Amino acid sequence: ILFHERTRELFSDWFQRTDRFTLGVCNGCQMLAALAEIIPGTAHWPRFRRNRSEQFEARLGMVEVLETPSLFFRGMQGSRMPIAISHGEGRADFGAGRDHATAAPWITLRYVDGEGRPTMNYPANPNGSPGGVAGLCSTDGRVTITMPHPERVRLTLQNSWYPPSAGRYSGWMRMFRNARVWVA
Q1: Mean of the per-residue pLDDT values of the chain
Q2: Secondary structure (DSSP) of 112-169
Q3: What percent of the chain clears pLDDT 90, i.e. is strictly above it?
Q4: Under a CB-based contact definition with an 8 Å cutoff, are residues 94 and 130 in contact?
Q5: Using CA atoms, how far apart are residues 5 and 97, in angstroms rounded to an integer?
Q6: Which of 75-79, 91-95, 157-161 is predicted least confidently?
Q7: Cβ proximity of 183 and 162 under 8 Å
């Protein structure tokens, strides 16, 4: 994309348009992070590297939704929910001389431990991302990237456990409804 002039132009035009939004999950997260130079408001994004565990991680984990301008996570701030993890290269690497604190206003998701605290400890943090970083957004909130998979647990029956009163959809369905509201 970056090395083919016409393709770069098409993608750049997409990201410049303020009437468009983009969600990148897992490999899409990695791809969009690699395209940050053509996505407005993403200079704070990391690249994604091999998990500190040196293995592919595939299981449920727990994340907290933080307050950011992401259109996907409106009204979800403070939620702590299980999420599907399925990656081998999910560790956020902010580069030399940078850390996750500089990206704090745009960190959408972070891994938390059993007490709800952000964690660097394995296995609660499956990849070793600093501060438990699991997702970020652009400064205007139109582009969001997440390493874990909210789409894989949008239905309650996709979770390993849920209360009988939970209904058909998990809390993750709200992010997709938020996108629909944004479009309307």
Answers
A1: 97
A2: B-TTS-B---TTTSSS--GGGEEEEE-TTSSEEEESSBGGGGSBGGGSS---GGG-SB
A3: 94
A4: yes
A5: 31
A6: 157-161
A7: no
Q: How far apart are CA 174 and CA 165, in angstroms?
A: 17
Among the listed residues 103, 126, 97, the one whose alpha carbon sits nearest the alpha carbon of residue 113: 126
Specify the length of the chain in residues: 184
Residue 169 β-bridge partners: 155
Cβ neighbour number for residue 97 with a 10 Å cutoff: 6
pLDDT tens for residues 117-148?
Answer: 999 999 999 999 999 999 999 999 999 999 99
The secondary structure of 72-94 as a DSSP string is TTTT-TT-EEEEEEEESS-EEE-
Distances (CA, A) of 139 to 35, 50, 108, 148: 15, 26, 11, 21
CB 88 within 8 A of CB 56: yes
The dihedral through the CA atoms of 95, 101, 105, 107 has a sign that is positive
Cβ distance 181 to 61 under 8 Å?
Answer: no
Which active-site residues does the annotation give? 26, 149, 151
Considering the entire predicted model, what is its pTM?
A: 0.96
